[in-house]
Specification:
The structure is a homodimer. By secondary structure, chain A is of the alpha/beta class. The first copy, chain A, has two domains: about 250 residues, Alpha/Beta hydrolase fold, catalytic domain (Rossmann fold), CATH 3.40.50.1820; about 110 residues, Rna Polymerase Sigma Factor, Chain: A, CATH 1.10.1740. Helix content of chain A is about 35%, strand content about 15%. In chain A, the strands form three sheets. Chain A has a six-stranded mixed sheet, covered by helices on one side. Chain A has a two-stranded antiparallel ribbon with strand order 5-6. Chain A has a two-stranded parallel ribbon with strand order 9-10. Chain A is globular. The two termini of chain A are about 40 Å apart. The relative contact order of chain A is 0.13. The interface between A and B is large, with 68 and 68 residues.
Chain lengths: ~400, ~400
């Protein structure tokens, strides 16, 4: 999904053992860095990308990059690496399985956010990084931030988890399940064994349309589109794939339909269906308590009282480094503000900033001015030595 | 979808002209009544059913029925009729088009909630009803309640709209669009021309699964399922249709997945895909201002300021009969409480009851004890003459 022209640095490891016990061979990690490691090696910022993001931070969080902004390359050595299973370069279902000489496709083994963190740590080691000043990320990126601090205690000093959660909720698992069913249902999916030139574009577009409901909020749809009607003929023609139907002609075509179809259609050229399903499964495994506290992973008919599980989570959060900056978007329906409030209540001396916005979950990308302001203020306070000049 | 054994009364009209100008011939209206019209003819209660409901109120709102409850057949003559396009008896895509001798299928013309109200009014005329004491309904039923008062001014004295809205929001139109795309994508759908014995079951199940996200709330999924894992082999076997995949076996199977699959699979035997799409389109037309105020239905690039549209809506609501009982569910993400607050702010002397519940939109069905209590209290106050014995 990247052309050779804009290829990022890649570290190739002969092998990498996943949390599941499965060993991947010849593992690529695509990453990107900005700025330079200072003499004290105390200016490392790790950016963790969300679901459909990549190491190319400028493609999805560019308003935060630049001199005087949150991602200030004159002060920080900034690092972002692509996660396992993502189509943007790191080993994924699109990669060749050395044992077969063919792409892994649906046979690509399950990975976890902890696998990503351990893999990316190897790249940091390779780059001579000995500690990280701050890790920042939204949504899945925020999950990764939390795992950085838990997988390598003491290595990441400060954390900025945004619009994220300590564990993937039943609600998020449910959204993933609906997207999975939509993709499985497409005959072009072929159980994941689709040819590279005939991917299940239609299903991927519809899954993306479903996702766009969860990424915004009722209010944002109302503000942007209301009940406005769009000229049908003009807008249908634009789509790369056919999302209209003969029946459409007899009904008003609302602007919000047009928006969803355009977004769904444009997504299919940028993402792979097996990668999409893989990352949903990865996020489903997210539970910082898993295998760390005695009460994790309740099994069938588990008698574990919820209160005990809550206490275990609170106890684990209390072990994290103090003074994170936790950011919420007030209208986030995917990772609602109470999930970040839980982080802030239990991590020592946490700052919680709730950004009042109708943007929903995507507010972590959209409300860049307010996020930038909160992050810069926080970094200046926590790292005065990096802001002294 | 009903067997001859439990057939409800049906009124057949030789023809019925829809709001669109199209005339349907030989139109059936399936309805049901409970109790008896009193001598004063002032004890009529109209119940308006939601999307997947029917005239058989006892099948979906039974906890509200009975002596001393909201639907007290010793006090009220209660009426509920099935809407156009629903699979439960009233003329729909499943009905025979007299002009072709075949089922309408996807050719069934668009209908509106106003069509339903006008059609059901004919049944009330036929039953000798000259006025309605109170109309009650949730979700689409609440939309219908509002249209009753607007289509026949003075005919319906009191209204109890629950978890509903004055106009279908962009958000709800968007959910409908995603469900429509899911169904269109199923090759078994065949543009709606599927054989009666080979309906697009898989797509309908997935659309239902998507719907179940919108009908509940993040909190309700968390409370019910959390991250609990279910025994896979046991639960997969139950489903009437295949919603699992070989890939599943390698991943934890969360209880919430099992819930969604079971609900999706069980829905397909009870509803028809063309009817499902028809009613989504019907709800999309819902806008009480449409064709009633000069500012309705903004067209492409309409310059109409939102403030003016809001003012038109407020002005129209102010013409409704006073003292409705408006009920919200606090966690409703489909028709959020602010949409009912808008009704209550603008209809004269409205009572607004917000039921604090994690049940989400489905709270109008689930929170029956608190709804029953609010409704009984309201009815006793508004209709003392019916509660004097």
């Amino acid at each position: 999904m990247t052309s050779p022209l804009d290829r990022n640095p890649t570290l190739t490891l002969p092998e990498f053992k996943l949390e599941s016990g499965i060993t991947l061979h010849s593992v690529d990690v695509v990453y990107k860095t900005w700025g330079a490691l200072n003499a004290e090696r105390n200016n490392v910022m790790v950016i963790c990308h969300p679901f459909t993001g990549s190491a190319d931070v400028h493609k999805w969080w560019s308003p935060l990059m630049g001199c005087g902004k949150a991602f200030d390359t004159t002060r920080f050595f900034i690092f972002c690496a692509n996660v396992l299973g993502s189509p943007f370069g790191t080993t994924s279902p699109l990669s060749i399985d050395p044992s077969t000489g063919k792409a892994y496709g649906p046979k690509f083994p399950a990975t976890t956010i902890r696998d990503d963190v351990r893999l990316h740590k190897m790249v940091l080691d390779h780059l001579g990084v000995t500690s990280v000043a701050v890790a920042i990320g939204g949504s899945m990126g925020g999950m990764t931030v939390l795992e950085w601090q838990l997988c390598f205690p003491g290595f990441v000093h400060r954390a900025i988890p945004i619009a994220t959660c300590a564990k993937q909720s039943a609600w998020c698992i449910s959204w993933g399940e609906v997207k999975r069913q939509i993709i499985w249902a497409d005959p072009a999916f072929m159980g994941g064994h689709y040819p590279a030139d005939r991917p299940p574009t239609y299903a991927l577009a519809i899954a993306r349309m479903a996702g766009l409901l969860s990424y915004r909020s009722p209010e944002s749809y109302e503000e942007r589109f209301g009940r406005r009607i769009q000229d049908q003929s003009a807008s249908h023609a634009q789509h790369a794939i056919q999302l209209s139907n003969e029946e459409d002609k007899e009904y008003p075509y609302y602007e919000t339909q047009s928006y969803l179809r355009a977004k769904g259609a444009s997504f299919v050229g940028t993402f792979d269906a097996n990668c999409y399903l893989h990352i949903i499964r990865k996020m489903d495994t997210h539970d910082i308590v898993r295998d760390r506290m005695p009460l994790s992973l309740p099994g069938p008919n588990s008698p574990t009282p919820d209160a005990e599980a809550d206490a275990a989570l609170a106890a684990l959060l209390a072990t994290l480094p103090p003074r994170p900056l936790v950011i919420s978007i007030s209208s986030d329906i995917l990772c609602p503000p109470r999930e970040q409030a839980l982080l802030a209540q239990n991590i020592p001396e946490a700052d919680l900033v709730v950004i009042d916005s109708v943007a929903g979950h995507d507010g972590f990308l959209v409300e860049h001015e307010r996020i930038n302001e909160a992050v810069v203020q926080y970094l200046e306070r926590e790292f005065p030595e990096l802001y002294s000049n």
